[in-house]
Amino acid sequence: MIKNYANKVMDYEYNAFMTSMNVSVSKHLLDKHFTVLWANDYFYSLIGYEKSEYEALYHNHVDEYYKDDPDSIAHMGQVIMSAYEQKAAGYEFECPMKVKGGQTAWIRVTGRFTDEVFEGYPVIYTIYTDITKLKEMQKQLEKQSSQLLEALEAAKRADKAKSDFLSRMSHDIRTPMNAITGMVDIAEAHLDNPDRVRDCLGKISISSRLLLSLINEVLDMSKIESGCMILTEEEINLADLVHGVITMVQPQIDKKKLNFDTQANNIMHEHVIGDMQRLQQLLLNLLSNAVKYTPEGGRIMLTVTEKQLEDRGRVIYEFIVEDNGFGMKPEFLERIFKPFERADDEQIQVVQGTGLGLSICMNIVECMDGSITAESTYRNGSKFTADVQLRIAEEQTNEQPLRGKRVLIVDDDEVICRSLSERLALAGIAGDWAVSGQTAVEQAAEMHLKGNDYFAVLIDLRMPGLDGLEATRAIRAAVGPELPIILTTAYDISGCMDDAIQAGVNDFIIKPVFRTSLIYKLKRFLDHDPQAAVPVSTQIKTHVGKRVLLVEDNAINLEIAEEILGRTGVELETASNGKEALECVSQSAEGYYDIIFMDIQMPVMDGWTASVKIRELDRQDVRTIPIIAMTANAFADDRQKTTESGMNEHLAKPIDIPQLYQILDRFL
User: Phi and psi (nearest 5°) for 329?
Assistant: First the structure.
């Protein structure tokens, strides 16, 4: 403070009044420092410094006080000098101001020019108002306003996406419906031409499955959006899960002549507890998308990896589906997991779908404490990575009899060879490997000459140079018929099974090769009879002499189920509701029925109630008789309820015929 000036103007009452009003009043010189001539006590209270401290540190120079904030002091000078040059009465601006302790306050500075001059410089009167709280409120309001605008835009986008979705669904549903009704008309017009009728039936089957998948996804998304997704808990064999999904997509892969491969890494626990159907849905959606959006002759890779958790009772399974298909643009990649979204790309507009599959996948993995990510390069493929957490189930695999055996692994992928060798080592089995068919023949022949044949050979079907079948023939020529040879492949084996058996193959394993599946196959050769493991026919098994109770209230559904079940040779009895089914069982002799297929939604008594009451009957056979839900109630909570009511399986309508026959084979 300039003492000579202060002595002239200091007024105790004026200072006290301004301080009591929380107003900072000061006078400055219009020099290069904006030197403080005088300030009331509240000015120093505002900045947190004592008057003497401020004078000692900054010499009453505003520019020194703002030396760490050059932008603010430059702005301050520009506003003040511009107003002075324009001969304005004063000026006003807002700026940040540091306070003692390192914090920052916001102030509004209001200045007035005067006719007063001190030591040759004009004198300015200023008022500082602390607007920090006001700024914070303004910032919050701006943030809320921005959020409201974003929410409004998101709502508009969602509304447009749903409108587009409904328009697209109208088209996508009518397309297979038109095919179904059209093919029915054509078939009726050509009843005397079995080939034409057979062709129509095939196209009706394809169209009906497409229509079913569209309906399932829409209903599934409806359940998810209403917060009703419920996961069931059941024991899952990971190998069965993966192989089952691969089997489902295999016809699509073969039709487009895609190169498909699969790999399992570090799988230590193959039996887990989780929701089998939702896991299948997750993998099926990812693989089906890869097939849809990969052009003919392209490549798809499925990788399954187990990752350890600190929680010893749980593990993470990572599923990666990678392709070299159309790929996605960056702007679509950002919203790919949102419902009703589809890429606006002419190349893929012909691909039918709801745009819901990946959104459903995201909800599934989140329910399983996991995550899903997507990577893609436009026109150069995509990669989806899904992680899920699952509980470990008890595993009982006796590997002792195989300890000390030596197996030859043959695959052109060295990573697969090493992985299989490491997993066999865990069971005490030595695993030699070769990355070509020719090398495998030489190794097998060398061991034979030494009188130390391999216990078995595990050989890939598709390899460059000498493929799996050619290598098998060469090994047979070198070592004879005694050495068990197991063919591994990621493709459908039905087309090559006969050729493989003629070449000398004894058994088959679908990739990815899981340890328990491999151990099971190898143990079948412990009796030294390789021919014992040749696969049996895949035709429908007959169950003559077995009695089935079919409970169904719909006449058409009853006719369909009777026809399908009748092909297996079973004796079939029917009931039209749960009450009749209960009477049939209670009035029959012990062990009369071998299995019951039960609809759920029926008049008089539903299937759940009927199952509970059947289990409660005072007789021994009802404790073990298989009761299979055969119902259009296909959601997870429906399946959970069937389990709680004592049912053994849940078979969703429309009936998956191969699945129905598998259930019959398993329980009968």
Answer: -75, 150
